[in-house]
Amino acid sequence: MSKILIKRARVIDPSQGLDSIKDILIEKGRIKDIGEYLFELEAQIIQANGLIACPSFVDIHVHLRDPGQDYKEDLESGMKSAVAGGFTTLVCMPNTNPSIDSPEVAQYIVRKAEDIGLCKVLPAGALTKGRKGKELVDFYALKKAGCVAFTDDGSPLMGSNLMEKALRLTAQLGSLVMNHCEDDRIAYGHINDGYVSSLLGLASRPASAEDILVARDCVLAYHTGGHIHIQHVSSSLSLDLIRFFKDKGTKVSCEVNPYHLLFNELELLTSYAKAKVNPPLRGENQRKALLEALKDGTIDCIATDHAPHASWEKGSLERAMPGMIGLQTALPMMLQLVREGYISLSKMVELMSCNPAKILGLEGCGSIKVGARANLVLFDPEKEWVLGEETSFSKSRNTPLWNKPLKGKVIYTIFEGRVVYQDV
Ligand code: DOR
Q1: From CA 397, how far away is CA 377, in angstroms rounded?
Q2: 56 CB within 6 A, ligand 1
Q3: Cα separation, 14 vs 75, whole angstroms
Q4: pLDDT tens by residue, 53-96
Q5: Residue 242 in contact with residue 252, Cβ under 8 Å?
Q6: What are the helix (H) ranges across 9-155?
Q7: Distance between the two ends of the chain, CA-based, in angstroms?
Q8: Does 275 sit in the ligand 1 pocket, CB within 6 Å?
Q9: What SS3 class is residue 272?
Q10: Is the CB of residue 63 below 6 angstroms from any atom belonging to ligand 1?
């Protein structure tokens, strides 16, 4: 396998407290050396002056729509978008067709992703058969087939008895449950319960729907010793609940999406259905509470919730499917928060790489220590670009940021010692 020598990058790796200009030598798929001035005659040289090198990103919440909905995305287009966004590990959600509720479907994903070979794709198994919320899956068989977590993503598990059992069983396997917390008996509408829903007269999805399930799941994790991971937190009371249970030593972790950090519900007035997501974009006070929680460490990681949909599925606000694509926009969005002073670059790398790897106990990512697998990204924090027809790798275009100027671009992504994406 070829050698790569990265020269004069600003290397940021919170896992070893590193932030300085260094050379990095990669050999046989691993980090061979990190030093001041390294030489290697046979290596491909990457001149990285002005670039930041860090562990490549880990996204624990993506929808790749494969099998079953490849008009929106498939493993190959999703993986190409991922590496163009600096991600080399993805956890893909089970709301596929068929859903990931059997070892056969999990193995189909693992094998197809290995054949494509651009990055690692780890399936999240469904919690219940067909994601119908009635009967738990065989956690052991799915874990053996490669599933790293369990969730009925998009369809919150309402049965508390089933959630209690799922937390107990997954804890025995050293695995975890991820839940989309929105009680669908309260959250039956289309957008946040607030100014915009009143203005447009639309049925809504109040934050209380989220808070109720976050509270229930934390209580169950507290009593069972299971690990609950709360997906895409968007409400300030949910954050308070998570803080409370973390203080009690409960195994609770949570993610936030870049779009909940950067947009509020007013975005709907200009981007319409492109800004429709579940849970919905909320009011400015809720967004500010998310930013506070990012700073104080309540939020463990960033996840994109990359959710591709075809243009014809994004019509009126009432009818549109919820979701935004996000793999290629996550870095520029997070860099905006760095520029605005909410987080440091090092904290951003923790949130996008080290911490999501830790939550799932994933090896081979989240660090670029000598000897580790060479999974890293080189990005230019100042480069301006536009996500559009020429630059996007997704099959879908559903983001308010389509054709808008962005700042901060991935220049190289390296997966297991191979350059899998290069900005041309
Ligand atoms: O906005 C969303 N889109 N939220 C979800 O929970 C599901 C996702 C999707 O699959 O499109």
Answers
A1: 24
A2: no
A3: 30
A4: 999 999 999 999 999 999 999 999 999 999 999 999 999 999 99
A5: yes
A6: 75-84, 103-116, 139-144
A7: 23
A8: no
A9: helix
A10: yes
pLDDT digits (tens, 9 = 90+) for 99-145: 999 999 999 999 999 999 999 999 999 999 999 999 999 999 999 99
Structure tokens at 97: 């067709």
The CA distance from 389 to 103, in Å, is 36
- Could you tell me the CA-to-CA distances from 310 to 72, 314, 372, 395 in Å, in that order? 6, 7, 39, 8
pTM over 0.70: yes
Give residue 330's identity as a one-letter amino acid code: A
Paired tokens of 240: 């308070």
pLDDT at residue 1 in the model: 54
Q: Supply the mean pLDDT for the chain.
A: 97
Structure tokens at 79: 């993986």
Phi (first) and psi of residue 44, to 5 degrees:
-70, 125
Ligand 1: residue of 95, 127, 210 to mutate (most ligand atoms within 8 A of CB) is 95
| Both tokens assigned to 82 | 């991922």
Report which residue type is found at 177.
V
What is the number of the ligand 1 atom nearest to the C-alpha of 307?
11
Measured in Å, residue 7 CA sits from the centre of ligand 1 at 41
Nearest residue (by CA) to ligand 1, atom 6, is 154
Of the candidates 254, 251, 212, 253, the one whose C-alpha atom is nearest the C-alpha of residue 232 is 254
CA 279 to centroid of ligand 1, rounded, Å: 8
Cβ(75)–Cβ(300) below 8 Å = no
C-alpha 45 to ligand 1 mean position (Å)? 41
- Average pLDDT (10-38) is 97
b/e sequence 84-105, b meaning 16+ C-beta within 10 Å: bbbbbbbbbbbbbeebbbbbeb
Residue 70 among the catalytic residues: no
Residue 307 near ligand 1, beta carbon < 6 Å? yes
Name the residue among 191, 183, 118 with its Cα closest to residue 157: 183
CA 402 to chain centre: 19
Estimate the share of the chain in helix, then strand, then coil, as percent rounded to the nearest 5.
35, 25, 40
20 CA to centre of ligand 1 in angstroms = 39
Of 66, 74, 300, 305, the active-site residue reads: 305
